[in-house]
## 1
Amino acid sequence: MVQSNGNLESQFQIPKIKFTNLFINGEFVDSVSGNTFETIDPRNGEVIARIAEGDKDDVDLAVKAAREAFDDGPWPRLSPSERRRIMLKFADLIIENAEELAALDAMDAGKLFAPGKNIDIPAAAEVIRYYAGAADKIHGTTLKMSRDIQGYTLLEPIGVVGHIIPWNFPTQMFVMKVGPALAAGCTMIVKPAEQTPLSALYYAQLAKQAGVPNGVINVVTGLGSTAGAALCSHMDVDKISFTGSTEVGRLVMQAAALSNLKPVSLELGGKSPFIVFDDVDVEKVAPLALIGILYNKGEICVAGSRLFIQEGIYDKFVKKLEEMAKTWVVGDPFDANSHQGPQVDKKQFERVLSYIEHGKREGAKLLTGGNALNRKGYFIEPTIFIDVEDDMTIAKEEIFGPVLSVMKFKTVEEVIKRANCTNYGLAAGVMTNNLNIANTVSRSIRAGVIWINCYFAFDPDCPFGGYKCSGFERDLGMEGLNKYLQVKSVATPVYNSPWQ
C-alpha cells in the first residue's frame, strides 16, 4: 500500500459552499428550530460547514409543499413531453456543474474527485436523461374482459414520495430516486444522509433552474432519527423509498405500517460473493476482485467482500492480490494519484477497524493492511484476510470498508451452498470461462444482480435491488419507474359490440 501526499491546493481550487439551508417550496430556508449541525471533511476531520438541522416541523412544511404541488400544481399535469424537456435541461445543468458537484462529494464523502467528475457525475446525468426519455412512454393496457365490458388500466403517479438516501453515493442515490419519480409525475421530499448533505442541496437548486416547479423537489437535511423518522411516519406521504442499512430498513417499514400503510421500497445491505473458478486468467481476474472490494473504499453495498477462489488457483490468486495491494495508493481524494480516499466519518472509520480486530481475534490470517494511516483523517489500509471461515464475523456481517475475506472452495455445488449461506442477497460475481458453470451458478445464487466475468456493471436500463434482507423492489430500469406509479383499472359496459 502506498500513501499519497500530493500538493492539492495548487492543482484544484476547493469551491466555496453555497447552499447550507433546507430547500422547501423552491426556496432555501432556515430550520424552524434554528438548529444546525456540522458536516465534516473526512480528509482531516475538520468542519466544512454548518447545515440547517431539519426535524418534524420542517418535514411537515416540506410535505405540505409537496402535497400542494401534487394536488394542485402543474407538474403531474404537464404533458409528458414537457416533463421530458425540463428533465433534459436538468441533466444538462448537471454536466455544466460537474466539477463543483464532484468536489462536494469528495469533501463530504471522501470520494475520489477525478472519477467523480469524469465518470460519476456524467453517469448521474445519464440516469436523468434515461427517465426523461421514459416520461412519455408510461402506458396502461387494454383488457380482454370475459363479459360485455370494456376494460383498460391507467398508470398514475403515486403521489408524494419520501426519498431517504445514504452517504456512500450521494449523487447516484439522488438521481436514482428523483429521476423516475419526476418522470412519473410525483412530488417529493429528499432526506440526504446527515454525513453528506451538500450535493443534494446543490441538485435541488439545479432542478429549479431547469424549470422544475416549486414544491416538486424539497430537501430536508437533518438526522435520520428525527427528520427521517418524521418522513416515514408522516400521514400525508404516499410512499417511502429508502436505501441504507438493513437495521434502519426495518424501522422504516415499521413506521410506514404504523402510520398510513404507505408502500415502502428498500435497498439494503449486502455481503456479496465474488466467485472465481480455476479456469480463469488470474492476471485478468485478480484486479477485478481487488476493485470489487476497494472501489469507493469498500463503502458500497454490492462490494465483493466474500472472495471464493477454487483450490486449483488459490495460492497463485492470493499472491497476485498481495502484489497489487502493495501498489494501491491511499490518499487525498483530490490527488489524481489516489486510488482510495478516507472513510466517510469517524464512526465508520472506527467500525471498520473494529471488524479488522474481529478478524484477527477469530483466527483469520492477515495478508495485507489492517491499520489506519498515520495521518489526519479517516484513512484505512486495504485489508485482506485469507483462510477465512464462513462462520467468522468478517465473513457474515457487512463491514462497509476496504476489508476482504478470502476463502477456498473445491466444487460448484459447495460454492453455491456457501454463497447462499447469508442473510443478504444483493449481488454476486461469477468468474469462469465455462458457460455451463456460469449458467448454473448465476441461476442458483439468490441475489438480485449477478455479474458474469464483470463487476459493478451498472446501467440506467438494468434494474438493481436485492433478495432476502437486502430489500425489495428495484432502482434503475423501467422497474425503477414502476414503483412510483399506481395501477388503476377502468371498466365500462359495451353494448352490441361487433368485436370481443
## 2
Amino acid sequence: MGTPGAYQPHLPAVPPWLNKGDNAWQLTASTLVGLQSMPGLVIIYASIVKKKWAVNSAFMALYAFAAVLICWVLLCYRMAFGDKLLPFWGKGAPALGQKFLLRRAKVPESTQYYEDGSVESPAIEPFFPMASLVYFQFTFAAITVILLGGSVLARMNIRAWMAFVPLWLIFSYTVGAFSLWGGGFLFHWGVIDYSGGYVIHLSSGTAGLVAAYWVGPRSKNDRERFPPNNVLLMLAGAGLLWMGWSGFNGGAPYAASIDASMAVINTNICAATSLLVWTSFDVFYFGKPSVVGAVQGMMTGLVCITPGAGVVQAWAAIVMGILSGCIPWYTMMILHKKSIFLQKVDDTLGVFHTHAVAGLLGGLLTGLLAEPDLCRLILPVKDSRGAFYGGKGGAQFLKQIVAALFIMGWNVISTTIILLTIRLFIPLRMSEDELMIGDDAAHGEEAYALWGDGEKYDPTKHGNWNGSLLFMEQPQTSGYTNAATAAPPARGGTIDL
C-alpha cells in the first residue's frame, strides 16, 4: 500500500517534520484552554458576583483575553520562550512573521550543556509549527491574568485594569514563564512545573492578593453581603473550566502521547476527589453542602494536580485531591477569619486560597510524589524524581521550595511596582458613587434587561409573543403602556401587573 496522499512530500503544507495527529491535538488542547477563559471564566465571574457587578466582572475577563493575545504576539511570547536575555527573562520580539510561525516548534530556544560538552537539558522540538505553540502558550498567559482579576472584582477602576493587564503580562508573567519553562535558570536546574502550578496558579494567587491590597476593598455593603446572582449559570462556567483542563494538562507534553493520557486522567481524578472532600467538610462544619463550595473544591483539585499531572501516578492524584480538598478549605474557611492581615485584604473570590495555596501545595507534593519512569517520559532534566523515590529526590523537593519562593517574591515586588505606577495616573479603585451603583456607572449597561425591571414592553415595536393569548386587544390602562400610543390602542396591549 502506498503512502497516503496527505503525507506525500510534495505537499507544501505538510513538511517532513509535521505530525498531523500531534498538531491536531495541540490545536484542540489550545481551544480547550481558551474556552476555559472565554467563555468559562467570563460566565463564572458574571454569575458568581452580585447582579450589579455582572457586566463589569465579565468585561474584565473579556478585555484581558483580547489584550493578552495582542501583547503576546507583539512582544511577550519571545520574552517568555525566546533567546535568553537574562537568566530569568527572554529577549522580546514579535511572533508575527510567517518565517517564524511556520517553522518547526522549538522550546526552549537554548540547549543546556555540562562543562564537558555533553547535553544536560535538551531543547524540545515538537512535530508541529511555531504557530500552534505560540497560540497554546497564549491561552495559558490569558487565563493567568483573568484568574488574578478575580481578586479585585467589584471595585477596581476599569481604566486601571486596562493599563494593568499588559504591564503585568510583560513584567511579571513572562519572567515566571521563562524561568520555569522557557530555558531560564529554574528550568535548567530541574524544577518540575508540568503545566503551570507555579507559572500560572501560584503567580496569579500571589499577585491577586497583592493587587487586592493596593486596590482596596469593596464597598461595605458588598463585603457584608455578596450573593451570586446566578448559581446555575456559575455551574455552566465551572463545567467549561473542568472539561477544558484536559487541554490544560493534556497539551503540556506537546504531543498526543501516553504521557498526555496520563495527565488527563490524573487531572480528572484529582478534581473529583477534591470536590468530594471539600463538600464533605462543608457538610461536617456547616451542616449542608454548598454548590459554590463544591466549585471551589473542584478548582483547588485542578490547580493542585497541574504541576505534576503527567509525572505522578493515579493513586498519587487521589492523595493530592484529598489534600487539596482540605488544606485550602481550612485556609479559606477557618484561617482566613482568624488572620488579621487576610481580613484586611479583600480578595473577592478567594484567589489566594484556591490558586496560590493549592498551587504551592501541588508543587511541593510533586517534589515528593514525582515518579521516576513518568519523569523520564517528559522532563528534559535527567534523573528527576520525587523525594519518596529516593536518590536525588530530596534535592528535588528543595528545588520546588526555592522555585515557589522566587515566584511569590517576584510577583509581590512586580505587582506592587506596577500598581503604584498606575496609581500616579489613574485611581485604582472606583469612586464611592460608582461602587454604590455598579455596572450602570462603570459601563452604562446592566446585565439583565428584565421586563418590569426598569424596562417597558412596547407591543407596537415588538408585537406579541408568538400569538400568546395573554396579549388580547384591550384598553391600555396599565402603568407600563407606551406613552407614545395614547391614541386608540394597537393590537397587542400590555399585561396589567
## 3
Amino acid sequence: MALLFIMSLTGLFVMWFTQYYNNKILENLILSKDSETTKSWIDPNPKYDTFLKVHIFNYTNIKDYLEYKADKIKVEDLGPFLYKEHTTKVNVVHNDNYTVTFRDHRTYQFLRDRSSHDENVSVVVPNVPFLAASEEIEKMKNPFTRGLSMGAVRAAGRHAFYTLKVKDYLWGYKDPILNIKKTFLGGDAYFGLLKNRRGTSVDSLQVYTGEDDIRKFSKITQFNGKPMLDFWTDEECNRIDGSDPSMFPPHVVETREPLSVFLQVFCRKVPLLFEKEVTIYDNIDALRYRTPLNVFGNPEENPDNACYCQNTKRCMPSGVINATRCYDDAPIYPSFPHFFSGDPIIYKDFEGIEPKQELHQTFADVHPRFAFPISGASRIQINMALHKGDLVKGLVRRLDDGAILPLIWIEITSGDFTPEILDTLYASTFGLNLIEYILKYGTLLMSIVSFSLIVASFYYLARRREANQMKNEKILTAELRALQNGDMSTASLSQLQQQQT
C-alpha cells in the first residue's frame, strides 16, 4: 500500500503540476528529419487540401465614368471562383540549428460546380501592365529612352481598362507590353495576378522544427535566406518573428497571447488577437482569433505602423499598405477585402464597395491543444495605385493621381470536413482530453484511496494492539484476584510471575 501510494502521488504531481503529459502529446508536432509527421507535412494527404476563393472586381461602367456620364465607378464583386489548393513542400533542408528550410509548391483544381461563374467569363478590369508601365517610364532619366518606351507601350496597350477572361486575368496570358519589356530588359512576358502563386514559390522560408524547444515550433527564422526584412526603416517592422499561417507555437494559445503571423503578400507580420472560445463542427472546441481593426491603420491612428510609412513616397490612409518596396517598386497596395476597416475616403469614387466584418475580416479558429487552424478564413485584397504619368493621363483624366484601384480579393479556407477528418478532430480533442481527465483524477483518487488504506491499516493495528493489551490486563486482574483468595497454586503463581516478566 505504501508503494501504491508513492506511485499514485508521483502520478498526481506529474499530471497536476507539470506539463509532462501535454508535452509528450505535442512531441507529435515536431518536424524531425524522416519522421512520419514531417513526411505528412511535406506531402499532405489531399483530403486536407484547402480552398482558394477568388473574387474579381468587374468595372461595369468605367467607360461611362471616364466620359463623365456616370457619377461613380460601379464595381461588381464577381465570384467566388473556387479552386482546390494542394500545397507540398519542396527543396526541404534540415539544418543543424533545429530549423528546416523549404519552399511551397501549389497546384490548383477549378471547381466549376461550386463557383459562381465559369473561368471563361469576361470581365472589365484595369490594364495592370499598361498602368504600371506609366510609373516605370517616368523614372527613366534619358529623354530618348523615355520617348521610345512610351511610344512602344502605347502601341501595345492603348487602353487603361480592358476586357479579359477570368482564367487569363488570374493565371496568366502573354501580354504585349511585358513582351516588349522582355525583349529589351528581360523578364517574363506573361501576366496574371495569381500566376506566381501556382507552382513553386519564389520565396523560401526557414522555421523552427521544435526539436530543441517545442515553444519555438513553427516560428519563422529566415525569409529568403535573411533573418530580417529590408523593406522598412525600423528593426521592429523588419523582424521576422511570426509563424507560418498553417501552424502556431502550441504554448502561446494556452495563455491566449496574441499570435503573430508572417504574411508574404503584405511583406510584414500581422497580429491575431484572441476573441473568444467557440464551438464548431458539432461540439468541437476552438479558440477564435481575429485581426485587430487598426492593424493597417495610418500612423496617426496606430503609431506602431509609423515605420511602414517612413521610406515610402506616400503614407496611405488607414486600411491600405504601401507595399511597393516589397514588389520591386510595382504599384501594389494590399488591404483587407472591400477595404474593410479602412478610411472611406479610399473608395469615395466607387459604388459596390461594401465592407462587412463577417465577410471580409480575417479570423482563425485554432485547436486549443495543437494550435493548428481548424477553420477560419485568411482574406486579402490586391489593389494598385494609379500613377498619372504622360503615358496614361489623357486616358484617365477623371481619376485622381494615386487613386487606389481594387483588382481582386482572395479567401483561403479549410477544405471539406469529411467524417474521417471529423473523427480525427474528435480524437485529438475529446479522446486526448478524456485520457488526461482519467489520468489526473485517477491518480488523485488512487492517492486518496491508498492514503486512506494506509491510515485505516495503522488504525486497525493500533486497535488490535489495544484490544490485546486489554485482554492481557483482564487475565492479569483475574489471576491476581484468585491469588488473593488463595485459589491459585504455587505453580500458577510462578507462571504469572513469568508472564509479568
## 4
Amino acid sequence: MPLEDASVKTGEKSTEATLKIPFESASHAEIAYRVLRVDEEPRRNFVKKTISLKEDTVEVHFTADQVKNLRTAITSFFENLILCKETIKNFNLEENAGTFASSNTA
C-alpha cells in the first residue's frame, strides 16, 4: 500500500501533513474510512485531523502546533491503519460484506 502523496508544510503557527492512501477497491477504502474516522485526536495533543474518502483513496490532513505532535499523531494513525488493513485482508470483507450476523444470543 504505497502512499500516493504525502506533503508537509511548516508555517509560523502550525505544521501540516496530508496523506493520500490508495486501496485495492472503493469498498476497502470505505471500510477503512468508516473505521479510521471514529478515532479522534486527544485534545492535549494539539492536533487536528480531517479524514475524507475519494473513490478508492482515503485522504487524511493533519494540522499540529509542533512537528513532534504531528509525528506522534501520524504514527498513531498508521498503527490504526495497519490494523484496519490487516483486518480487511484476514476477513476478506469485500466478498463477505453483509454476511456477518450478530453472535449475541443473550
